[in-house]
Design brief:
Shape: rod-shaped
Oligomer: single chain
Number of strands: 0
Strand content: under 5%
Low-confidence stretches: none
Number of helices: 2
Structural class: mainly alpha
Radius of gyration: 22 Å
Helix content: over 70%
């Protein structure tokens, strides 16, 4: 009985770790995308922003 519970806990922890890792890597990709994203602006606005 105890062995089954330990196996189940290990499986659940593995799933949680995988899920957390995928969410973490996805959010890092989004941050990198937002940091490098430049919206399309008319040239006049680009000159004002600079």
């Amino acid at each position: 009985m105890l062995v089954n519970v330990l196996k189940l806990n290990r499986v659940l922890l593995g799933c949680l770790a995988t899920l957390a890792l995928s969410i973490f890597s996805h959010s890092i990709k989004n941050c990198c995308f937002l940091a490098t994203y430049e919206p399309d602006m008319p040239d006049e606005l680009k000159e004002i922003v600079k």
